[in-house]
User: What shape does this take?
Amino acid sequence: MSEREFDVRHDRIRYELPRLGELGLDADPISVFGAWLDAAAAAGVGEPNAMVLATAGVDGRPRARTVLLRGYDETGFSFFTNYESTKGRHLAENPWASVCFSWLAIHRQVIISGAVQKLRDDESDAYFASRPVESQIASALSPQSSVIDAIEPIEARMLREQREHPDGIPRPPHWGGYRIVPELIELWQGNVGRLHDRFRFRREGGQWLRERLAP
Assistant: This one.
């Protein structure tokens, strides 16, 4: 093996964060998520709202990709996409998903799983209107996940649309938002000797049940 090759078998870092205990952990996982997200941003993690979204269609074969979190509260975690994309088709067939926030720079990870529902039209309209014009037009023009011969025709059409609609366009019907309604939220924090801290919050009877998991 040359010195420039990355050794995937033996590369590792040592986690030395303080032990994460029940007494120091808020009983509301949404609040903990918000605090950890803020900590990731403060630590300079690039795009801390990036999350890996895993979905599966009727064939049961999972697919993962990175999307951006665009809102969260006690009702769930929201993102936006093309309804006709692979993820959109998956969610129409099987409206369940899991996302993973991996903030390795601060030795933390959050996994969220639950049912997925479309956002209301007014919610999607409001977010779409807030986007840069080029993002609006790209979302409207791109046949996301479809096979194309070349990107140049889409680029040319996008430039024409930007000239014709400098103030933006209405949200196209094939684009909008989803909300993941969490049933499970797992918090992971690295610790010494690979004895990592893991806490799972499970929704039960409208309340969150907190459980420590073995590392």
Observations:
- Residues 29-42 form the longest helix (14 residues).
- The mean pLDDT is 93.
- The chain is about 25% helix and 35% strand.
